[in-house]
TrEMBL record:
This is Thymidine kinase. InterPro entries: P-loop_NTPase, Thymidine_kinase. NCBIfam families: PRK04296.1-2 (NF003297). ATP binds at residues 9-16, 86-89. It is found in: Cytoplasm.
Amino acid sequence: MPELVFFSGTMDCGKSTLALQIEHNRSARGLAGMIFTRDDRAGEGKLSSRLGLVTDAVEVEDGQDLYAYLVDHLSQGGRADYVIADEAQFLAPGQIDQLARVVDDLGLDVFAFGITTDFRSKLFPGSQRLVELADRIEVLQVEALCWCGARATHNARTVGGEMVVEGAQVVVGDVNQSAGDVGYEVLCRRHHRRRMTAASARAAALSPDVLPVASS
């Protein structure tokens, strides 16, 4: 039976690499996929991995009907044996419903990849809808690590190495950005709660057992 599968995890845990691997394995067997993405680090209309792999994709726009796009593609003689949706957290809830309809009405597997929560530990609307609708949720087993060595479970937005907790939910950036740039860092829950990034930990020269004073 076709499924809507949600592959979730923090940044830097290999979601896009797995998406590219699924695309490679299926295309090697003669299958053709439709790849959707949004706001990929490599630019518009790209699905990329931090390992340097990249492929073309359909850039999803605000208000775009993904089900109608697939139906139009198929009605014009195009082929789609499965669907990959990367950066699915940036999709609108209604677009997730459309992907579920692709599974139910067109009989295609849909593999969605995305992070679950934003830099404030709040659910992305697209990810929330995937949790509600997915036939199966897979947590990526390649664990990203916090600077302290613990398993990273939270995404932090940084400016100049300092964690920020205010701002728009979606600001495109990447891990390991230059100082002063908006970037992201994966942290364990303890250090996300303490707003302690690798840079701030080095600057404060604190041991992991010293509790920082929270700012009011």
